[in-house]
Structures are given as structure tokens and as C-alpha cells.
């Protein structure tokens, strides 16, 4: 990918960033947000803009390892700093433990909040490698997810931390008994057999 | 999760919580949503919106905006005289851009297309409009007044719409439609009653907040129109676009990439006709990406006022229910006529009721339009219906759970004449909820419990097709018009195709929601996809297998031993041939493929309506802080009665998500209008649940194989939302002795109710 270089003028500013470990030089307008620059100039479209007001967390990216809202963080303020996005989480095609935990726990549905959620959780685990459930709940309070009801997200972060959740709920294959095949589907027939997890 | 399974055995990978197939794309940022797409030459649009709730447009001056450098086109209704501006699927009343007047603050009036979004935004400020403000109606009560200002001087034309088949009835100029559900002798029911419970209940105007705001990208070519959109229903959008631009259906292509949440709010047509019109005038591909603030003004949920009376005998049997429902659909009908029909159907609840009379008026007001939203009338009416069961239980001295058990429908029993019998064991579901909640355990002071139930006539219409193909190497391509909106359809439908063709899941590719590549499906909504598209895929797979057995006879055993069908191919003599071999043998080379067709309509198993009943069964334990009025949901139990969980992980996830959304609407969420202006139309002021609102969760999945779908499946994903508000209201009554009838149950409302209780004011 070629960097976007235009002549700086009165209304333009040259900035240097290290994005996911790669040094980038760009000329931006002072009004441009970090989310705009990442998405539209660097083609890193993982971070999503939703509320556009720093309350939903969908655009969360890391600046010097701290989570910021890309929708309101000006690109010029990232000059000389390290920027981390969801595209940088996997290394050589290998998902990070947190990404894998999100898949294991189905910690997403539509996926629109997921890039921001992953970056917020990455920062959280950086600061607290062994968080309690409460730490995770409070650490992710700034990130809205409208699909999952949060429980699988909390489970995924705890899984990635090697915490107190079982590594995968995929092991929960239920005990199954057969009612008579071909029988009346409305007939309750046999007693229920249950597996409790 | 507790898992209760009594259904017959199912073939792999049915019933297996395989990882979601969209997982890697969604955790790496690779998943492309509409806003992430661009096409060469793409320009950007911004919309000028009405500042008035109701006003005539006197004069529009677009010259200065047109002269602004970088502007490509500035378009008002006057520039679109070659377009059918008014669309709508049940009632055509919605102009894609305001014509002569506006009916709500936020209505699109002018569109600007420019080289970039910032330039388009700048040009909006150069547009000059002369307005003549008109008197407006704020709410349904005002709208139904004798001299109320009328929103639609000419009623919108009714359009043939499978799913809303009754004739539109208008009882007032501001009534968009009126639906009735009635049976039995209602007068006798009330005159025989030992107890009549009466009340008025309010369900708020809510915003679905799909985190991806509405976005569309339209491109015209010599061969017609292509639109990429965040919409749930590609085929419905296609139909409206063909109507607006006078195109054959075949010349409109609608593509839906990943969708950032829908919850019903992205069903039917939204901004696609406007985007296409702007692209037509600009002569360029155009992207229109709304902000969240604009999305709120595009679609919200129907607010409801429900006046309900329920008659009981001494033992708590329900003798009759009489209700009047007013739904606030805002300025346009959208899908509210159908929401109104469903609200009328769903008010009674899954109970044996001797007589019922429900009228639901869908009422126009000068507010943002309301349409489909998860639950679809059910949350609105379930608050009323389930509240009154607990009110009656208290008055009759009966345990609320026992009262429900006494009235609940048995499996197979019809809620109303001609309706499909209930395909669920509701008493069993109640028992599971009670067990998980600890219904009989002693309550600490200040705490209360509630368990509520709902059953929705769901599934919409069985108008669904699917195509399944076997390629020359034996891998499978299934294609369907159902959209992956986060619910997991891309995983579940692939599991069904794999099971039906007897191949490994990783040999199946699923194509979804591109009208140029897949065949017709009515919609992705009403919790219908797993059930109805599942059946269509099953039918296509069976059609395919039939052909392949025939091909095997022709090509592999023309004179020889009988060909026997096996799970993953055919057996000829001692040799098992997989499907790919059959295809290659029949074509006589290394190439070719076989095509199977699946059609679903009102016939056979899906002849009866509704296609299935969607069950909601939820329990809560709450505590009430009497000093602040703050309710805390301590514990939330969901019972997902879904017949067969094709993927238990995604099924459970749907229930939890739905219940948490219901919790938001019961305790936090409400759009507030004042004098025609939305006061909290942004995410600062409109609060949705966050991690810290999450209660202790207990989930139950029940699989009894009693649904109409594949392997006894039926729909889920909305049910757990519907009873949440009522369950909380009932629990709060037991905790604090107050009866809440207006959601959301904010601290202020709860605190006021506590003050009234203490002042001894009768409620």
C-alpha cells in the first residue's frame, strides 16, 4: 500500500505514525479524525464508526497501547505515536488468543462492535493480564454490543486471560435421547433427559 | 446453559455448536459492511432534513448549493418527476423525498451529491427553503381528536402484500389501518366474571440501535440498477426499487454484505430509493451513509397505549379479554399495519380465553416513522396482558405461576379458530423457568420475582426458495436470499445443507442475499430463516438427491445392480460413489454439476398459518432501591423453546441478546418527543444496556422436536424479548407493592410510584 502524500499547505499537516508496527507518513487536514484516516486513507476499515460521539466504542483503536475512540481522536494528535488496530491483532495469519476466544465463545453476532471490543479488551488484558469478571465488566463498560447481551464477550475475555471460564463451550454437546422417530411431534412422549452445564 | 432434549436423533452436524462461519472475518476486521465498500467513481451524499414536524414547502432555492465547488447534484422532489416517488409495501404513503410538505422533523427534503461527504455537508448549508409551518399532532391521543390536523390528505394506496391481506380499515383520517381480532361472546364473559382487572399500559417509542446506521450504495449502468445496502430484505427492496424506477424486477440487483445489526429495524425499504434517485441524477455511483442521529429519524419502534380489561372466574380462569390498542406509527405507515395486525393477534397470549375482542388502531403522528422491530407488537401487548395475570393472581390469592398453568394452552390447542395449534409445551417451559429462577425459594426483603410467557404468530409467509448444487468434485453450493444479520444464518443454513447432503461442513459453501446470484426469499425476519429457509434448503437437497440417484442409474448401472441411495452418495453393488462421482459419470467427463430446487409455499406442512409459534418464556428476580427508585435485575432466566437447536451456541446467543434488549426497553430506553422535536435522538441521551447492566443469567434450551421446520426446529430470537418488561413489572410489584404500567421503569417513575404508595393514593 502506498502512503498518501500530498503537499502540506496552510491547512494540511504532515504526520508520522507507526500503524500495527509499520511506519506511515501522511499529510492530513487538522479536522480529520483518526478513524477517517485509518479507514479512508490507509484502507484499514476494521474500526467502525457508529455513534460518532465517543459513547459506543465501535471505533476503539490503540494509541500507544491505550484505547481511544477513533471517531473523536484527531489524526494530528497521533503524530509520532504507535497506533494499533484490529488488523494488527493476528500475527502471520495466526489469531491472537483473544480473537480465538471470541470465536470459541461466539462473542459476536453482527460483528459491527467486534473490532472496537477486541481493541478495548486487548488494552484491558495488557493492563490486567488476570482480570476478575468484575474487572472485565467495568473495563468494557464503554463498548456497546447490541446483539450478544455481553455474557459471551465477558466469557471470551476471561478465556483469553486463562481465567475461570472453560476453554470452550463447544464441549457442551448435549445428552440426547430419542423420542420415537416418526411419532407425533406434539406428543411429549418420553421423559426429558437433561444435561446441566 | 441447561439443555433439555427430547426430540429424535438428528444427523451431524445438526445439533452441534460448530464455530460461526463468519468468525474469522469478524474478529480480524476483514468482514466488509456496506459502509466499507466503494466502487470506482463513487460520490457521497448528504441529506437536508426538515426542521419542522409538519410544514408546507413554499419555495426551494438550490442555486447556491449547486454552485459550491465539488458538488455534483442537488436534488429535491422537483428534480425527480420521472420517478415514482411514493412507495410502501402495505400502504404506499411514503415519498422517498418530501413532496410539497413534510410530516416529521427529520424528513429528507433535499439530497446533495458531492465528491466527498464534507463538501456535500457544506452545500447543505447553502440551501434556502421557505417554510409554512402547519399545526401538528404530537401523539396518538391528539391525532385522534375531532379537529386534529391531518397528516395524509389522501390516504396511501393499499398494495397487494402477502402478510397483510385484510382490507385497510380507516376509522379516522389519521388512522393508517385498524385491525381486529375477536371470538366468543365478550359481553357474556364480562357479565359472568368474578373479577375484572382493568388498566392502561404504555410501551415506549424505542430505537433498535443497530450499531451500523443505514447505508446504501447505488450504481446505474446500461443494464439497470445495482444497490448494495445494509437492509435485511434484499428482495423486498428490489421490488420497491423496480416500482420507483419502472424497471423490470430482473434489472434491479440488490446485494447485502455483512449487516451490522438489524433487529427488524432494517427490514423493508429504507434509504435505497433515495440513494438510487441521487445516483440517477448525479450520473455517478453514490453512497449514502447515515449517522446514528439520522438513523433514529429513519425508523423507530411503534409506541403503544393498551387499554385492557380481563375477566376472570373465581378460580382464575380467563373468561374474556377486551382491548383497545393505539400504535404510534409516526408520519408513515412503513410496516406498522402488519405490526398492528400482530399486536391484535398477540394480545390474548398463549391462554385458553373464551371470548376476546381486540381492536388495534395504527395512528399517524408527526414523529419519525415506526416500523418492524424485534417482537413486532408482542412486547407492547405482552406488558399489558401478562401484568393483568399477576394483578388478578394477587386479588384472587392464587400463585401467579399456578394461575398461568391453569390457563395456558395445551400442545396442539389453537389460540383462535383457524390458527395453527400451539407447537410447544408451555406448561413445561413455565416449570423450567420456575426451577431455574428458584420460584419457591424464600425472597429476601426488597426483592421480587416474575415469570412471564408469550407466543407470537411468527414466521411471516412461507414464500421461500433455495438452490443447492453439487459441483464436479462433490462439494456443495447452497444459495438463498436469507441475510446474515448476525443471527448466525450463514452457519446454521450451511449445517442444514451439509446434513441433508451427507457431506462434511467444510465442503459446503453458502451464498446469501445477492438478488443476481440467489433465488427469491420473502424476508429475513419474524424469526423465520432457520425454519423456512431450512425447509427450502432441505427440499432443494432432496430434489438434488432424487436427480442424482436417477443419474447414477443411467450412468453407473445402466443394466446393472440397483442403485441404492446412501447418506453421502449412492451404492452400486459393493461400491460407494459420492455425489461428485455421479455428476462426473453422468456428464461423461471431469466437469458438470447438478442443480436442486427447493420451493416453499402455503402447502403441506406450511399450509397452516402461522408457520410456527414463537415462544417467549422469561423469569426475573429484581430488587428495588426505595430511596432512589432504581430497579436492579438480579437474575434473568430465559427458556428457549425452539424445537431443535441446529446450533445450540447460536440459539442460546439469540435468546440472551433478545432478553437483554428487552431489559433495555423495560428499564432504560425511550425516545422522548417535545412539541414535535425529538429530544434524545443520539447515543448520549438514548441509553442502551451496557456490560454493567448484565444480570446473573440462567439460560435453558428446550428441544422437543415440535416445530414445523427441519428436524422439528422452529424460530427463536425474538421470543425472549417479549415478556421481559411484564416480568420485571410483576417482580417489582412483589418487591415493592407498586404496579408499574408505563415502560421504561425509570428510577423517577418507580420513585414516584413508591411515593404514591406511601401517600396511600389509589392507583
Summarize the structure in words:
The complex is a heterodimer of chains A (197) and B (763). Chain A is α+β, with helices and mostly antiparallel strands. In chain A, 24% of the residues lie in helices and 15% in strands. Chain A contains five helices and six strands; from the N terminus they run E-E-H-E-E-E-H-H-H-H-E. Chain A has helices at 34-41, 97-104, 114-127, 133-139, 151-160, and strands spanning 13-19, 22-28, 60-63, 66-69, 82-84, 193-196. In chain A, helix 2 (97-104) runs antiparallel to helix 5 (151-160). The model of chain A is unreliable at 1-5 and 164-197 (pLDDT under 50). In chain B, strand 27 and strand 28 form a beta hairpin. The longest helix of chain B is centred in the last third of the chain and has 28 residues, at 529-556. Chain B has a seven-stranded mixed β-sheet, with helices on both faces. In chain B, 62% of the residues are buried. Chain B is 27% helix and 28% strand. Chain B is α+β, with helices and mostly antiparallel strands. Among the domains of chain B are: 377-382 and 411-459 and 610-763, Aldehyde oxidase/xanthine dehydrogenase, molybdopterin binding domain (Aldehyde Oxidoreductase, domain 4), CATH 3.30.365; 461-606, 2-Layer Sandwich (Aldehyde Oxidoreductase, domain 4), CATH 3.30.365.10. In chain B, helix 14 (529-556) packs across helix 15. Chains A and B meet through helix 2, helix 3, helix 4, helix 5 and strand 6 of A and strand 1, helix 1 and helix 16 of B. Strand 6 (193-196) of chain A pairs antiparallel with strand 1 (2-5) of chain B.
